[in-house]
Design brief:
2 helices; mainly alpha; 69 residues
Length: 69
């Protein structure tokens, strides 16, 4: 049976995801590339980011501090 990670793991995952999102937005996101490619990549990155954030928020057990045994 797979146990859900605790709040420290969830916070670490959110911090890592934020860092990756910022890095990708600087390289490929809004305002980058020729005309509308920056807008397209920025929107795509935003949608993927929102899906991953929802997954992390819903699969983390926020009331447990201890790591998974």
């Amino acid at each position: 049976m797979h146990e859900r990670p605790g709040c420290l793991g969830g916070l670490l995952r959110l911090a890592l995801l934020t860092w990756i999102f910022d890095f990708l937005q600087e390289r490929f996101g809004f305002g980058r590339g020729c005309s509308c490619t920056g807008i397209g990549c920025g929107c795509l990155l935003l949608l993927v980011f929102l899906m991953l954030v929802c997954r992390i928020l819903l699969t983390t057990e926020w009331w447990r501090l201890a790591p998974v045994p």
